[in-house]
Amino acid sequence: MLALEVSLALIVAGGAASVLVEHLSLASAHKALPSGAHPASAGQASGGPASGGPASGGPASGGPASGGPTSGGPTELGATEIGASGGARGACDCVTAPHACGFPDGTNTGVPSGMALRSVPSQVSSGPGWHYNAADGDVVVNVNRTVLSGLYIPYDLVIDASDVTVRDVRVMAGGYFGISLRHTKDVTIEDSTISGQNLTSGRVGAAIDDIYGDSTGIVIKDNNISEFRTGVQVSSGLIADNYIHDPGYIHGDHTNGIYVGGTTRPLMIYGNTIFNNLGQTDDINLDASSSKQVVANKSVVDNLLAGGDYSIYGGDARNDHTSNIVIKDNEFGQLYYPKGGHYGPAAYVNLRQAGNVWSGNVWSGTSRAGNAAVCGGLQPVDLPAAAG
Fold this sequence. Notes:
The chain has strands spanning 4-13, 17-26, 80-82, 118-119, 126-127, 130-133, 138-141, 147-149, 151-153, 156-159, 165-167, 170-172, 177-181, 188-190, 193-195, 204-210, 219-221, 224-226, 228-233, 237-240, 243-245, 256-261, 267-270, 273-276, 282-288, 294-301, 304-307, 310-313, 321-328, 331-332, 344-349, 357-359, 362-363. By secondary structure, it is mainly β. The protein has a 12-stranded mixed beta sheet, with no helix packed on it. A 10-stranded parallel beta sheet has the order 4-9-12-15-18-21-24-27-30-33, with no helix packed on it.
């Protein structure tokens, strides 16, 4: 796994403007399997309650209609489809067992195996900084600097305070949200398992959601997230080392592993494994929630991705101005489709605009020599020559 050091400095002016400064020290890349290691199937079943989530169409810009783009999707300059290299999967394919390559999966994320959790409300209904709200059917954190740990919560967990840490918590949510952030600052969600009840009518709308889009200093790391329409919906902060997989589906859903909703606030999406086995919409969607917005300062680095219409939507789907969109050193898997996603690994990546980068992205389990049994030298996922 890449060594990751992150320092987050948050500057708030008048309660309105904020700047998130992220310093990343990246030591080594997810590239080769350990010597003698051979991938074996790794995963963790999950369950959890929901009855639909937000309006079934999903966020306003949650990608194309559920059937996906027509005949291969956008190919015009500035809304580029990135095609498959044709490499074969093999012994070095990280999608088979992500943990063997240092990526997150069911073996190294979420609540630690065997950890005893107290059930809310049958075993405990309140604690320092939090309480079960029977009237609304949710659990509310409303005191700053609360640490929530060791709980099983079969309800929406509402974070209505700042400097809150959620750690080693199992949330099996109902309705719209699993964990919802409301006007917060410096919330960390880590080592937790968040899901819906099942893959159909019980899928949760958004497993983690900054519902007003104004929270700052968010850190989401080392979580196991499944059975959702949208896995994580935030526009700033850090989303790192999570296993986001097995989305649910109700007719009309737009399914997103991570949905950003645009904005210019800095966001780092780093070191996650995101698998969307549905033929729509994406693993990561940087697009704005409506047209005529600027989308900027988003980094997608060193993730393991597979599935969706396209694995990544690069922010330009609404012909918005984009800048400082950095997509680099990611591995695209052919777990579900030969092109990574149903139509390709990425679309709407506009390299003609300032600061946008597509670099170092490769096909997992392939080699430049065409010998999938040889680790290293993975085949690149290149933009068409006409782009940029």
